[in-house]
Amino acid sequence: MLCTLYIRNFALIQELTVEFKPGLTIITGETGAGKSILIGALNLVLGERASSELVRSGSSKAVIEAVFTEPPAEKISSLLEEAGVEASPELILRRELSAAGQSRCFINDTPATVALLKQVGEVLIDLHGQHEHQLLLQPGTHETLLDDFAGTGQEVAAYRQTRSQLQMLRQQLSTLENEAAEIRDKKELLDFQLQELSELDLKAGEDEETENEITLLENAETLFTLTSSLNERLYDSEHSVYSELAAALHTLEKLAVIDRRFEGHSEDARTAKSIVDELSRFSRTYISEIDFNQPRLDKLRERQLLLQRVTRKYGRTLQELIELREELDARIALEDNLEAEKTRFEEEIGVARSELSRRGIALSEKRKSAASKLETLIQNQLAHLGIPSATFIVAMSREEQPQGDIQAGGKCYAALANGCDHIEFLVSANPGEQPRPLVKVASGGEISRIMLAMKSVLAESTRLPILVFDEIDTGISGRIAEAVGKSLKSLSRKHQIIAITHLPQIAAMGDLHLSVQKSVQEERTVTEVIALDHQNRLQAIASLFSGSEISSSSLKLAAELVAAAESC
Fold first, then answer.
1. Whole-number Cα distances in Å, 208 to 214, 304, 318
2. What does the domain layout of the chain look like in residue ranges?
3. Which of 60, 63, 53, 132 is nearest to 104 (CA)?
4. Considering the entire predicted model, what is its pTM?
C-alpha cells in the first residue's frame, strides 16, 4: 500500500505530504490545478525519465519520496537482494532531481540506479492514463494472467520440470557424443599413451622410495665403515663407552651406600648404560643388513631415469601420471560403451518428449477453456462500463517447428518456456474493427476502462499492484460513469486504487477524497493537496455538477450520491 507521497520543489509544488489510505482514493481539482503534476511526481519516483525543467524555479533540487507498506515480498526481495539493498517492513523510494539535470535515486536510504527504481516501481504501481506502468499492455504478462485465472499453476510447474529434464538429457547426450568424437579423433594417441603408462606399472610414491633406496645402496661402504666404528666405540673396544659406564655405575653404587644423594645419579648412569647397550645392538644388526648389491643399484638407477624421462615427457608428476592412466582407461572404455549409452539416452529423451508433449497439450486445452470464460466475463464488464460493442479475445497460437517437441494433429510445435502457446490479449472497442493488441488501442479513456474491466475479472485470481487511474472518465457520463465508479469501488476492496476524475458519480465512491488546489502565495503560484472532510467533500462533488457556483440542488445531489456509494 502507498502510505505517503512527499514532494518538495517540484513544478508548482513547494512542499507537501500526501497521506493515502486503503481502498479507493479519489483526486479532484480544477483544470490546471496540478493533478497532472501529482501524477508526474509519482511517475518520477517510480523511475520514469526526468527533466531539470521540473525543478521549481529558484530551487536547487526537487525531492520526491514515496513510502509503501506490505510490498509484494517475493518480487521486491529478489530485486533488492540482487542490488545489495537491505529490505525492511517499509519500502521507501526517493528521487532527487537537481536544477543542473542530475538525478539521484535511493531505496531504503541506499543509493540505487534509475533502472532498479523503475523495476521496483513496475512491481508496486500500475498506472493508467499516460501509457506508463501498464502491466496489462505488456504481452509478456498475459500468459501469467491467464494462468492465474485458469488455475494452471501446477500444470505449468510440471511442464517446466519435464522441459528442464528433457534439456538436461539432451545436454548429457551431446556431451557424451562430443567426448566420444574427441576420443575417436585421438584414439591412436590415447591408445599409445595408455599402453605406455600401463607398461610402466607406476605406483604411488615409487619415485621417492626408489631415490631413498638408491641413496642407501650408493653409500653402503660408508655406512658399513661408520657403523662398525660406532659399534667399536660403544661396545667392542677395551675402553668402550659401555665398559666405562659400567665402571662408573659401580663407583656410583658404592657412593650411594655412603651418601644417598648419589642414588638418583646412579639411576641416571644405569639408564645411560641401557641406552648405549640398545644403540650397540641396533648398530650390530644394521651392519648385518647392509646390502652391497650392485645389480640392484643398477636396476634402480635405470628405473629412476625412466620415471624422470616419462614425467618430463608428459609434464606431470608421478601421481598425476597414475591419474592420467586411469582417465585414459575410462575415456577409451567410453567409446566401447558409447552405443549402449547413446541408446539409453535416446530412449529417455523419447519418453521425456512424449511426456512434455502430453503436458503441453493438456495445459493448452485447460488454457483454451479458461480463455473462453475470460473473454465472456471481460466483454460483459466492458458492456457494463459503456463499451457495449467491445470484442475481447485471448489470442492463442503455436509456433510450428519441424523438430518441435510438442506433437498434435500430425504437426510439431516449439516447446516454449511455459507451454506451447503464445498468448496475447486483443481488443476491439467499436463494431467492425478487427481486434488489436491492447497497446494499439488509441483512446486513453477506452484503455482505462478496458484495464478496469480486465482487473475486475482478474482480481480474484492474481495479486495486482496498486492501481492508479487517470483519464478513466474520458468520454463517459451518467449511467456509465456510475457503473465505472461502482466497479472501482468493488475492485478497491481487494486493491488500493487511486483515481483522478472529473465525474461526481465516480468521486462519490471514494473512501478518501483529495482535492488539488492552486493558489498564489507571496506572489508565487503554489499547488496544494488537501484531504477533505465530509462537508468539504460534498462541496467538491457538488462543484463537479455545477462548477464554482454551488447550488443547494447540486449539494443535495452530491449527498445522495455519497449515501448511495456508502450503501454499495
1. 10, 10, 10
2. 152-366
3. 63
4. 0.62
